[in-house]
Amino acid sequence: MALTGLQIYKLLPQTNCKECGHPTCLAFAMKLAAKQAELAGCPYVTPEAKAQLESASAPPIRLVTVSNNGTKIEEGNETVMFRHEKTFYHRAALMIRLKDDDPALQEKISKADSYIVDYVGIKLGVDGFAIEATADATKFVEAIKVTRSATKKPLILIAADSAAMAEGAKEAGDKPLLYAADESNWQKMAELAKSLKTPLAVKAASLEKLAELTESIKKLGVEDLVLDPMMNGHLDSLSALTQIRRLAIKKNFRALGYPVITFPNDEVLAAQHVAKYSSFVVLDDFDPAMMYALLALRQNIYTDPQKPIQVLPGLYEINSPKPDSPVFVTTNFSITYFAVNNEVEGSGLQGWLLVADAEGMSVLTAWAAGKFDADRIAKAVKTTGIESKVNHKKIIIPGQVAVLSGELEESLPGWQIMVGPKEAVDLPAYVKTMWKN
User: Fold this and answer.
1) DSSP bridge pairs for 397
2) CA distances from 432 to 16, 313, 341, 347, 348 (A)
3) Which helix (H) or strand (E) holds 157?
4) Is residue 221 part of a domain?
5) In whole angstroms, what is the distance from residue 231 CA to residue 228 CA?
6) Spatial separation of the C-alpha atoms in residues 101 and 113, rounded to whole Å
7) 146 and 36, same structural domain?
8) I want to staple 408 with a disulfide (CB 3.0 to 4.6 A). Which of 84, 334, 357, 374 is the partner?
């Protein structure tokens, strides 16, 4: 049973040392009770109190790791129903399922494995693969060997027979996810997962049966579990996954406090599962167009809504610029950066892009907040070494902040401040008309 804030407070040292980042031990205890802080934040808690508090302060959804050769997928450990309450931390893994008798197994895996997209400066791609046994253990093992020769990414192994699963797991890497234990085989699967120290998926046709199975498997010593409620419809899967999430987070129901795996049979259902609330979304086919849409959706959902997506401040080269190429200035808000970069690059022009640290805000927002001003732009000019790379002293600032030109001339004596267009799309025409002049 979860402890209240006052019950937790009685087990803390009550020194109000503030080393946990909170003003008092009581404030820290309240955060622990709300699952908004980690017990590790208190350096002085006694071993006895720590043992008593760890289970009570553990996140409502257990963190489960699937890994291979240093590449890992972490799922679970979420503490809220909606990201605006705090944020979501472990994005849903997008994986591709292939059967062991597929004659094009290696080709399909290689194609999906090499798929990488650049989304606002973030490299995204397929997270792993699921290999399903269809015949005997020998074919299953061979398929896993083929998979391992084509990719180093983590695997899910799908087999109903524990003997075949045991043979396949030997070839799968560090820590595959074993799928799945059900009412017919849960004891053998649990024993195998325990011996291999790997996570185990559990499936049942109802949440009641699912909870019963997880409790039975936990008693055998397997803690890292993943749930499959076996729902494939849009309404029933939404209902089941929401109930699992709500029971874990709102009711602290430990029997269902685990990540979820789903096998959506169409792109709409896949998108729904990414949003609510699957941890492992396993697709039957690799379609680049659908994968890009799911990756973009996932990135938007799992980006902290209180923190803008940003690029590193600094100096960026566009189309191998020369010393007489123009210098553009913008903020480190990723969309602003890519808007300027893409327009200049696509036009074939060469240029230097000076990105000032505006704490991830767009041009107008940063200017209004005092985060994009003459001092910050001047600092970027001086710290990036742009003066040594060009044979001129001219920079182009965004037209939306033309008001900064006067102040910038004072901060950068000897530099000519050019006021560019308000929209990035107009930059190529502006350069062709104004730069040489």
Assistant:
1) 419
2) 64, 27, 16, 11, 11
3) strand 155-158
4) yes
5) 8
6) 19
7) no
8) 374
Q: Is residue 243 part of a domain?
A: yes
* Residue 396: both structure tokens together: 């182009």
Give the single-character DSSP code of 412: S
Q: Which residue has the tokens 């640290």?
A: 357
* 3-state SS, residue 361: coil
- Which residues, at least 6 apart from 254, have a Cβ–Cβ distance to it below 8 Å? 248
DSSP state of 362: -
Phi and psi at residue 274, to the nearest 5° = -60, -40
How far apart are alpha carbons 362 and 424 in whole angstroms? 13
Residue 308 lies in a domain: no
Above 60 in pLDDT, residue 1?
no
pLDDT at 36 over 80: no
- Planar angle of CA 106, 109, 115, nearest 5 degrees: 140
Q: Measured at the alpha carbon of residue 286, what is the angle toward residues 284 and 291, in degrees to the nearest 5?
A: 110
Domain limit, last residue, from 301, 327, 361: 301
3-state DSSP assignment of residue 176 = coil
pLDDT, tens only, 339-380? 999 999 999 999 999 999 998 888 999 999 999 999 999 999
In the block, tokens 């309450």 appear at 85
- CATH code of 35's domain: 1.10.15.40
pLDDT digits (tens, 9 = 90+) for 265-284: 999 999 999 999 999 999 99
Q: How far apart are CA 145 and CA 139, in angstroms?
A: 10
Q: Tokens for 288, please give them.
A: 């680049």
- Return the bridge partners of 95, or none: 128, 282
CA distance linking residue 392 with residue 398, whole number of Å: 19
Give the pLDDT band of residue 162 (cuts 50, 70, 90). very high
Q: Is residue 342 part of a domain?
A: yes
Please, are residues 130 and 97 in contact by the beta-carbon 8 Å criterion? yes
